[in-house]
Amino acid sequence: RVLGYVDPVEGGRLRTSQVFVGHHIPPHPQDLQRHMQELVQWLNSDEALQLHPVEYAALAHYKLVYVHPFVDGNGRTSRLLMNLVLMQARYPPITIRKEQR
After folding, report:
1. What average pLDDT does this structure show over 86-94?
2. Within-domain flag for 16
3. Higher-confidence residue: 27 or 101?
4. In the chain, how long is the greatest CA-to-CA distance?
5. What single-letter DSSP state applies at residue 28?
6. Binding-site residues for ATP
7. Catalytic option among 35, 52, 61, 68
8. What domain range is 84 assigned to?
9. In whole angstroms, what is the distance from residue 45 CA to residue 77 CA?
10. Measuring CA to CA, how many Å separate 34 from each of 28, 56, 77, 91?
11. Which residues are annotated as a binding site?
12. b/e string for 54-80 if b means 16 or more Cβ within 10 A?
């Protein structure tokens, strides 16, 4: 498994409860669908696709972590998205060690 343990009840579903991540308060669960649609639109936009691949990958990672759409696995999913963007541009994937996060 790429993402390690994933709760089968929660896996693949947008969260239904409010979460708090340090000092960051992610969007309310009722707004997640809209935020995710906006993220996908941005990922496919001319604006995003014209960025340098490393900048595009970093922003994709940041934007997904900011929305924090899942109960668990947001960081892992964001790092996978970042590496997908990098690898599609023929860059090597980045490994971020736990102590560097």
Report:
1. 97
2. no
3. 27
4. 38
5. P
6. 21-24, 72-79
7. 68
8. 52-101
9. 21
10. 11, 21, 19, 31
11. 21-24, 72-79
12. eebbbbbbebbbbbbbbbbbbbebbbb
Contact present, 3 and 75 (Cβ < 8 Å): no
**Tens-place pLDDT, residues 12-33:** 799 999 999 999 999 999 999 9
pLDDT in tens, 48-84: 999 999 999 999 999 999 999 999 989 999 999 999 9
Q: Rounded CA gap, 49 and 25, in Å?
A: 28
Q: Is the pTM of this model over 0.90?
A: no
> Catalytic annotation on 68?
yes
Q: How confident is the model at residue 11 (pLDDT cuts 50, 70, 90)?
A: confident
Residue 25 resides in a domain: no
pLDDT (average), residues 33-60: 98
- Is 83 a member of any domain? yes
Report the interhelical angle of 74-88 vs 53-67 (nearest 10°).
Answer: 160
Residue 57 lies in a domain: yes
